[in-house]
Amino acid sequence: MSETTLTISARRARPRPGQECTRHHVLETVYDLISEHGIEGLSMRQVADAAGLSTGTINYHFGNKQSLVIAALESAYELPSDWEQYCGSPSAQLRRLVFGYVCRSPRDRFWRFWINYLAASTRNDELSAHQRTRYERQERFWARLIRDAVKVEEFKKSLDPQHEAEQLLSLAHGLVVRQLVLPYAEVRAEARALLGARIDSFRE
Amino acid sequence: MSETTLTISARRARPRPGQECTRHHVLETVYDLISEHGIEGLSMRQVADAAGLSTGTINYHFGNKQSLVIAALESAYELPSDWEQYCGSPSAQLRRLVFGYVCRSPRDRFWRFWINYLAASTRNDELSAHQRTRYERQERFWARLIRDAVKVEEFKKSLDPQHEAEQLLSLAHGLVVRQLVLPYAEVRAEARALLGARIDSFRE
Amino acid sequence: MSETTLTISARRARPRPGQECTRHHVLETVYDLISEHGIEGLSMRQVADAAGLSTGTINYHFGNKQSLVIAALESAYELPSDWEQYCGSPSAQLRRLVFGYVCRSPRDRFWRFWINYLAASTRNDELSAHQRTRYERQERFWARLIRDAVKVEEFKKSLDPQHEAEQLLSLAHGLVVRQLVLPYAEVRAEARALLGARIDSFRE
Amino acid sequence: MSETTLTISARRARPRPGQECTRHHVLETVYDLISEHGIEGLSMRQVADAAGLSTGTINYHFGNKQSLVIAALESAYELPSDWEQYCGSPSAQLRRLVFGYVCRSPRDRFWRFWINYLAASTRNDELSAHQRTRYERQERFWARLIRDAVKVEEFKKSLDPQHEAEQLLSLAHGLVVRQLVLPYAEVRAEARALLGARIDSFRE
DNA sequence: AATGAATGAGACTTCATTCAT
DNA sequence: CATGAATGAAGTCTCATTCAT
Questions:
Q1: What is the pLDDT of residues D108-121, one digit of tens each?
Q2: Which of A74, A110, B194, D190 is the most exposed place for a label (fewest CB within 10 A)?
């Protein structure tokens, strides 16, 4: 509404991609940036620059920084792309999910993102609620897989699915902490071994 | 809080009579504020107000925010004050330490502080080194306690102290995550039970 | 909303069949929104959403915000719809008009709109001119009604119509201010009583 | 905390005036700017530039824009500097206050400020509360002056002080509206005459 | 005729840091 | 030793406006 903006005309000529595509592209960027700089270290300008957009566009699509971060979290938790190939066996599915808790590199993108999100969620109710929901959903899902595995006799009958899921998830998270603190290949290998051994102990 | 600036060390290393007291008081305040608002959520004005000093004074004593935060992190880790009373029994000592991983309230000061420290350490080499040292020292200490407990026959001989310490520590950290995500009394009770059961399983 | 840009007039003056309806609908919306949020508190997105159109469409029809606001201000002043039924008696007509200065609710749409218009007009020549014209027309009209009422002997002969109209209008506006500052039912009732009493004092 | 700010050193060398002096200086500036551009037309940058300070300093002293505006309102309502000379006579005091409602120029600073504040207050509870308080205090004060004037027999006994104060204040505000809409010297003279006549009518 | 994604300037505000006192 | 007013960069977010579709 100021005089200056009235006389200056837009100079942009870049073609626009589809809307959903833009959102997805931005979320990828955010996910990367958070794992690199943390949540409060993430600035909207940074996101805009990295995504090749303007800050206005980012806010146009996501409303505000918090929603952007939450959207990034949501999109980060998705079933692995190779999920279908495990569909036949609940125990294989469980193993696939649990091995997701093994870092893939000393600076694993996802788990660095996660630890930052977790820290932020201790002082933000909305983030916290999302985190809680995810956690509980994960636990229930693992419990169901264990139950199913028991049914098809992949796991032994004596297991308490809920209880085992809880312990397994806790161990997995504890090992994530360990891998973040000790970012060495051998620690990651150890984590994988420990988790594998735990799942194996579910078999007869 | 970027990595580059963290290498700047505090300017003054020559404590004077009245100074040390002021410094300690400020650090206590900072610890509290970090566990409440996170590291980047900590402002110098906040610190000054909470400590009943002026921003100028804070900077006079610590040079800058970086040094202040580092100093606070350093001073945050101390052995529990009731440590002596457990000195006779290694297993009692271990139990005492492990139960330190049970949150004392839905917003436990120490563990909220810890998660913020951990997140920050993923993008700061100096913090990361501190964290790693702490972690390894803790693990070695627990392993030694287990070894001692085996020696005095509180724990069974078949244990691999190093291996058990590692798993126990991972479980403990995983349960801390669980308690932070699910800040309910029952979850804390469960964590305590699980850790207790694990230690009990070390006995014959 | 700076004076300089206000001189820009709407680009399109050639209404087409379906267009006029859209324009009218939008202007109604704008009037509502201004009385609620003020002129600078009005955003194009808000207008678009409230009117069920897109921002592009609003700008397509009105060129820019300035023109939109001006158009809304223009269309806001209309004679009351029940005007005809008072046509017989000048004093009844006057009473009808004067009672229009009594707010109908604590957040009367029209008078909230008016105060925003008035404030804006103090720093915009075009609005100011409109406002002045309206004011003078109103005063002349009231004076004429008083004169007519004197003629048909509803009011006493000794009145100076011009002078009385001026004072009555001033009192009415002063009471509007009062009602805006003190948005209570009793203040509105008092205003009505005061205005009624003043008109009654015109009778023999 | 970023690297850039750490290396760039302050370049300022301007001496600092006393704190209360700074506040007062800023408020004068704000008052001027609001009467010129309205409340939403007032930007913190503008204030800072006009006052020869930085935006940070403005916020340091006033916290935020709203508090700044309110502070400006409060400081705008102060007893006239020549108040003492009227102290002997309540009616002279009243006359002095009432004539404050006559604009001193076609673009009277105070009343332009006031109308903007009034408009803004219709959509902001805090502004509104301040406005209401001021209004009621003013009315009570005028009523008291009238009552005192009756006591010392400057005004006739038959007056209802509360009622007359209310009407006088409304008339005064109505005339302010008139003067803002019709910014002519003769209208201001007329307003003065009308208000004077009304006060004169209080005498025996 | 209509859309809505994209823009970029500019708004308010916060904050680590400095320095005259 | 201690203060706190002042700074100015950077943060988030809003918004009128444009233009390819």
A1: 999 999 999 999 99
A2: A74
